[in-house]
Specification:
5 strands; single chain; 284 residues; 47% helix; alpha/beta; 11 helices; five-stranded parallel β-sheet
């Protein structure tokens, strides 16, 4: 299986990771069949995770606009039990959130043990959007902002935060949906041309597109500095949505398999309750 995991040695280069599926990728129909099988397995693994109550899983999605975050989350997690699953989409921080450190608002929305949490955008906006638009730092009332030092310190804070989560039973897995500029243009135009997609279009998306190189540089630094064994990044080719969804599903299933959640073993008292329950039901 093709791996898209970003190396942990800080030597990631965007140019080495394609936006297209690898050679030998199965047909669209075959990918659809594989996705269906992976979704079924993910549902079964989530049931075990929910009953086990020892672990949680946090999946982080970051990408340029129109890369397919929403649709990928919807397709990959289509069958999971809503009781053990939560998606949070992070927009610009509120006034209250700006009075706290930049990790506070995501820490407040971490998944509980037994659950899968999805961050659609995340704490990484603070080293992406804010890095490309450093004027946003003024609203954060920081005691001191010193050149490049702030990004070094934020990467250090993120690594420590995610390692702390991993040590406490939260498996962190991160997806960067790697879309090309050409494909993004095509999808943005479809939001203008197709009436049922008009609501998705924001003129501000074109402002970010105009700074494509700056964003790519920020993504490269982010991936180099924060892909670690305890919280790996996966650079998923996003120009083909069918392949992208299967690639994400493969990683999610592998992550849960590695945790190996199990249904609780019943003790003598619970076994007696089962037997008593059967006796009473059959007596009715």
């Amino acid at each position: 299986m093709m791996t898209h995991r970003v190396p942990f040695d800080g030597k990631f280069s965007i140019g080495e990771f394609s936006t297209d599926p690898p050679d030998g990728t199965p047909s669209r129909n075959a990918l659809g069949d594989e996705l269906a099988g992976l979704v079924d397995e993910l549902v079964a693994l989530q049931q075990r995770l929910f009953s086990d109550q020892r672990f949680a899983v946090l999946a982080v999605f970051q990408a340029m606009d129109a890369a397919g975050k929403d649709s990928t989350i919807r397709k990959v997690f289509s069958g999971v039990n809503p009781a053990g699953f939560r998606v949070h989409a992070f927009g610009p921080p509120s006034e209250l959130e700006l009075r706290h450190d930049f990790l506070q608002r995501v820490a407040a929305r971490l998944p509980e043990r037994g659950k899968i949490g999805i961050f659609n955008r995340s704490h990484y906006e603070e080293v992406l959007v804010v890095r490309v638009h450093p004027e946003f730092l003024a609203a954060q009332h920081l005691p001191g902002v010193e050149g490049q030092r702030i990004w070094t310190e934020r990467f250090e804070s993120i690594r420590g935060f995610e390692q702390h989560l991993a040590r406490n039973g939260i498996a962190v897995v991160k997806f960067w949906l790697n879309i090309s500029r050409k494909e993004q243009k095509k999808r943005l135009l479809s939001r203008i041309d197709e009436e049922d997609k008009n609501w998705k279009f924001r003129l501000a998306d074109l402002d970010d597109r105009a700074r494509w190189k700056e964003f790519q540089s920020a993504y490269e630094a982010m991936l180099r500095e924060t892909s670690r064994e305890w919280a790996p990044w996966h650079a998923i080719p996003a120009d083909d949505k069918a392949y992208m969804r299967v690639a994400v599903a493969r990683v999610m299933v592998a992550t849960l398999r590695n945790l190996d959640p199990r249904f609780p073993e019943l003790g003598p008292e619970q076994q007696r309750e089962l037997a008593e329950g059967r006796r009473r039901l059959e007596k009715e």
